[in-house]
Amino acid sequence: MTPFTFARAADAPEAVRLGAAPGARYLGGGTNLVDLMRETIEQPAIVVDVTGLSSAIEEGPDGSLLIGAAARNTAVAEHPAVRSRYPLLARAIVAGASAQIRNMATVGGNILQRTRCTYFYDDDGARCNKRSPGQGCDAIDGFNRIHAVLGASDACVATHPSDMCVALAALDARVHLDGPQGRRSVALTDLHRLPEDHPELDTILAPGELITAIELPALPFAMHSAYRKVRDRASYAFALVSVAAAIDVSDGTVRDVRLALGGVAHKPWRARIAEDALKGKPATVDSFRAAAAAELAAAKPLRDNAFKIALAQRTLVAVLESLTGRQP
Amino acid sequence: MPLPVSITINGAATPLPDDPRVSLLDLLREHLQLPGTKQGCNQGACGACTVLVDGEQRILSCLALAVQYAGRSVTSIEGLADGEGLHPLQQAFIEHDGFQCGYCTPGQICSAIGMAAELRRGVPSYVTDDIAAAAVEFSHDEVRERMSGNLCRCGAYNGIVAAITDTVGEAP
Predict the structure, then answer these.
(1) What is the pLDDT of residues A56-96, one digit of tens each?
(2) Tell me: the pLDDT tens digits for A8-65?
(3) Would an 8 Å CB–CB cutoff place A122 in contact with chain B?
(4) Nearest Cβ partner for B1 among A8, A47, A100
(5) Is residue B142 part of a domain?
(6) What are the pLDDT digits (tens) for A140-158?
(7) pLDDT band, very low/low/confident/very high, at B4 (cuts 50, 70, 90)
(8) Is domain A5-51 given the CATH code 3.40.50.300 in the classification?
(9) Smallest Cα–Cα separation from A73: which of B149, B39, B109, B140?
(10) Residue A84 DSSP one-character state
(11) Which letter, b or e, does each residue of A224-258 get, where b requires 16 or more Cβ atoms within 10 Å of its Cβ?
(12) In contact, A98 and B149? CB cutoff 8 Å
C-alpha cells in the first residue's frame, strides 16, 4: 500500500474541504477502496473517512425517502420503510456481498465501487484502459465471460458490480452531491458513465465531489417489486445477470413498469426500451418476451459472454411472470 | 475532526498504530500478538478474519484500516471466553465437530455471533420469503445463506450449521 495521510470528516462541509486537496479520496466502509489500495491500483495521497456524514433514513412528507450516504448497506436493507415500500431495494442489497461486507459498506461507497474485471485488478500482467488510460484492454479478446454485452466500447467492456444500484436505477433515485463548486443532484442513471473513450472515468463526478445522500421518489407500485440475481453460486458472488423490476397492472394491462439490469453494462442499465414496449400492453408472457427481446436487440456478445443475452431476456421474463402471478 | 487516539480490543484500550496503512487484522495479529483472528485471502472473500465491532456487529478485519475504528470497541475470538468457560458457540463447535483444521473457526464463530444478533433484529436475507416481515424465521436455509461469507476449505459445513442451530435457533 502506498503511504497516505488519514483524516476523518465530521460532516459534509469538512469532507469537501479535505477532499479538495490533490490526490484525496473519500473512504466509506473501505470494502473496495482498501482492497484497491492494497493492490496499488488506487494510490490516494489523502484518505478522507466520510462515515461521519449523515446515515439517517428519513421519510419525506411527499412519500419520498432520503438515505444518508453513510448509511450502511445492512441498515438500509433492514429499515422498515425500505422493506415495505421498496422491497426490490432491500432484496438487491441482501443479494450483494456477504453479511460482514454489508455491515461495513456505505451507500455512497457502494455506488462508487469499481469494476471487478479481472484485468482491471491484474496490474502486473494485464493491460487495462480503466487502470492505465491508453494502455489497451486485454478483456476484449481475453476471458470475458463476466463482461458487458450492452453499451461497451472498443476501449472497455467492464461491468458495474453493484446490486443496490440496479434497484436504485429502477426507482429513479436521485443522488445528492456536494463539492467545491457547491451542491447539486443528479439521477442515479446519469451518475455512472458508459466507457466510450474514457473508461478511467466511472462517473460524472467532478474532482472532490462527494455523495451526501440518495433520494427515492414515492413509487406506490414498488410495493410489488422484485430483484433476481443469477450467479455462478447460490450466494456471495457477483451477478452474471440481475433484474430489478416493479410493475403496475390493472385489468390485465400494464399501466406502469420499471426495469433495470445488472451485470450487463458499465453502468446499472435502466431498461427503458423494454419499459416503453410494455406500457399499455396486455400483461402476458408474449408481451414480456417481446419487451425483453427489444431491450437486448442492441446487445453485442464477446467471445465468452453471448449467454448473457439470452439469460438477461429469460430473467426479465421470469421476474415479470412472477410479479404478475403468471408463475410461482 | 481530531481522531480518537485509541481503539478498545477485547475490553482493553490500545493505542492506534502510527501508520494508517495497518489493517485491523494486522493490528490484532502482528502488533498485539492476538493470532486467533486468521488471515485467509486478505481481500474480503473468505471471512477468516471476521471480528465483532461495538458488541455484535460482524465485519472483516482485513478490509478495515485500524484507524477507521478509532474510538470503537473490537472483540476477537480471544475476547469471547469467560476465563476458562467457553462461549456457548465455542462449546457447540466442539460438540458438533464444527471444524477440521480449525483455520476458519474463529471467523465462523465471530460471524455466527453477529448473525444471531442480526436474526434477533429481524434483518432480512436473500432467502427470506417475506422481506417486509418484522421477524425472520430461523431455518437451515437462513443459516446457510447468512453464513455464506465464511468459507471452510475442509467442508465442515454440516457441523458448523449444527453447532449454530444448537446454540442460536430451534432444532430443524
Answers:
(1) 999 999 999 999 999 999 999 999 999 999 999 999 999 99
(2) 999 999 999 999 999 999 999 999 999 999 999 999 999 999 999 999 999 999 999 9
(3) no
(4) A8
(5) yes
(6) 999 999 999 999 999 999 9
(7) confident
(8) no
(9) B149
(10) H
(11) bbbbbbbeeeebbebbbbbbbbbbbbeeeebebbb
(12) yes
Query: Grid coordinates 473508461 are at which residue?
Result: A199
pLDDT at B1: 85
- Residue B104's domain comprises 88-168
Higher-pLDDT residue of A257 and A125 is A257
Residue A143 Cα distances to A88, A137, B64, angstroms:
31, 11, 31
Please tell me whether residues B100 and B71 are part of one structural domain. no
Residue A175: phi and psi, rounded to 5, are -105, 120
Grid coordinates representing B105 are 473457526
pTM more than 0.90: yes
Q: For chain B, which residues lie within 8 Å of any Cβ of chain A, measuring from their own Cβ?
A: 1, 3, 19-21, 23, 42-44, 47, 50, 57-60, 63-65, 67-68, 70, 111, 114-115, 118, 121-126, 128, 131-132, 134, 144-146, 148-150
Strands A57-59 and A174-178: unpaired
Which CATH number does A226-323 carry?
Answer: 3.30.390.50
Q: How many domains does chain B have?
A: 2
